Prior knowledge:
By secondary structure, this protein is α/β, with parallel strands linked by helices. 31% of the residues lie in helices and 26% in strands. It has helices at 42-49, 115-135, 152-164, 175-183, 197-204, 222-227, 251-255, 266-269, 273-289, 305-313; strands at 2-7, 17-21, 30-39, 59-60, 65-72, 84-87, 98-102, 106-108, 143-146, 167-172, 188-191, 210-215, 229-237, 260-262, 296-301, 320-324. Strands 3, 5, 6, 7, 8, 15 and 16 form a seven-stranded mixed beta sheet that branches. A six-stranded parallel beta sheet has the order 11-10-9-12-13-14, with helices on both faces.
Amino acid sequence: xxxxxxxxxxxxxxxxxxxxxxxxxxxxxxxxxxxxxxxxxxxxxxxxxxxxxxxxxxxxxxxxxxxxxxxxxxxxxxxxxxxxxxxxxxxxxxxxxxxxxxxxxxxxxxxxxxxxxxxxxxxxxxxxxxxxxxxxxxxxxxxxxxxxxxxxxxxxxxxxxxxxxxxxxxxxxxxxxxxxxxxxxxxxxxxxxxxxxxxxxxxxxxxxxxxxxxxxxxxxxxxxxxxxxxxxxxxxxxxxxxxxxxxxxxxxxxxxxxxxxxxxxxxxxxxxxxxxxxxxxxxxxxxxxxxxxxxxxxxxxxxxxxxxxxxxxxxxxxxxxxxxx
Length: 325
């Protein structure tokens, strides 16, 4: 028997249970991984609360982790028992001592990346890769607005944008978070608890506004984000931390400057083995170059996943949080 976190109904962190399970043997095309570290992400809270429906109940939770392959199913050729690996995509169940998943979603870890770094950064790093390099292929010289700039995704985005020669304006909720974002390479920060974001963006850009806004907050920042864009610019809505954006009249995009909008996801970009490997290669190269450092600011025992989620949801965390089996 092994242990995992699961939930049988949606709700607050109190629905999470620490239970005994019989680890599943890998089927054809699958591998079983003994997790050494597990990543914590806001999408985990979306599943727990029911914003995103789990495929069945009771359900495991989490999609990101790193560890060692301990069993390989039929037909798997690129991995073998003993390989150091990481993963960032489903199925749900990463909050566990052992996790079985499709081998196509698993990549080998280079020697220069340890398990904790991988678990803290795979989903976030690949998210930043598609946001900055694919959703809008930044070339340098652009000015962008990035919400939650001191969080796990934001901390990586600040560093990557600086490496690309992009001016990243990051929104934060405190001076401490502003200092962190600036240390990570943000060009400027805006404390949204004290400043008007749109007016401050206008001041910082001399009225030109932004080429792209990256918004993981959702409902609370939707219209404000649109107001920070220059005409014909791109709104990238990639998260729902404050709730989903709904009830939108598409005509608002015309009223605010013939804007473009997209709602991307990691699964929408890393949808083939080849694309996943390309994205990982780009991300791993950034770490190897030293231009990107992963800040593991919070570590929790896996069985305390509920406490970790509460800290994340209340915006008390900075950087990345990992769970340790």
